[in-house]
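Anyone? Bumping this.
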Amino acid sequence: MRVELSVNGQPRSDEVEPRLLLVHYLREVCGLRAANVGCDTTSCGACTVLLNGTSVKSCTVLTVQASGQEVTTAEGLAAGEALHPVQAAFRQEHGLQCGFCTPGMVMAAVGLLAENPDPTEAEVREGLEGNFCRCTGYHNIVRAVLAAARATAGSAAEPDPAAGGVPEEVGA
Amino acid sequence: MIPAPFDYVAAESTTHALDLLDSLGDDAKLLAGGHSLLPMMKLRLAAPTALIDIGRLAELIGIRADGEELVIGAATPHALLAASDLVRADAPLLAHSAAQVGDPQIRHRGTIGGSLAHADPAADLPMALVALGGSVDVLGPGGRRNVAADDFFAGYFETALGPGELITAARVPRRPGASWGYQKFVRRANDWAIVGVAAVGGRIALANMGPVPLRAHAAERALAEGATAAEAADLAAEGTEPGEDVHANRVYRMHLARVLTRRALEHRT
């Protein structure tokens, strides 16, 4: 059946089987391969994308359920050459090892910060509960999300002289 | 994993959904968030011939006060329930339970109606609804009816819903001051409860201690008669016949029910 949706800001119209999972649509129809199929059982979070701005596991969403809505994948985050603050923070803090969970982690983090722009370390860890890193690189991932939150607050808010700018070390 | 083929129809209203349930037959299933049904379809444990999507019906989404009750639309996602100021004030156990389901992504998609209809005895929201003394609004070919949570869960993954019926809402009493406690024992993040306990006022409900969420009647009676939390909790597993699996045998589950009930009662807020 026909689906019409926005993927990374681009309107699309495609003929799909009702059983086509969103992650397969993104990877195989749209050619966007950031979202990975990891566990395929709604556990690992490697397939996390944003649906209307909130994080979802695209292995457990039918493409037809996303019709008429806005999907954002990791490919849609950067503005040209300028990385999204979460992407920049993952690079800065080395928030990845093998990289397989990274697109899902980044999208979950973007979704988390949209709901809670100034999370505590505990809130970041709970907010990423649905994403597994089997390299167990969680420590730097959490540092990256906290750094992204501070960088975003630093650019969005009036500079606070008392805060002394964005700290290099967070969560240590 | 890819589900078996099926037809998909997005319902335009609950009335339309009822018509579709009638015309598409017994092998059609309702779809809301899909976070219980789609995993089962991917494993081919379920293979409905048609899905009727009610997940985006505005009439089924949202929370409102109706006199002494809160009414939660069936397609309200867990995240909305957990974040609702109204629910946090008037039925905090329900908001807390919704916040314990799965993980953030799952809470963005999973719905209260889906959780109740799926009727997993280990799930958070069925237990919470029983503890709160809530009820379920049902719409079907015969009209509307309301089923008490105590009567809604009929067996393992089985409810009082008849053919052609759908859940439109869950109802819970508004009890802003009532003390409540919640305990869930899991081995890992995201897991289903090996045993769960929800207590509010004088009511205690148990998850995964039988085929349906159960009331701990003996412990409730003891509390009503003035027993301490520890004394009442000793009776929490009375009358239960919990199943056994790789996580826990029967004796261990009964032990957990007693320990978790004591913690839930002692840490009531």
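Late reply, but here is one note on the structure posted above: Chain B touches chain A through 29 residues (CB under 8 Å).
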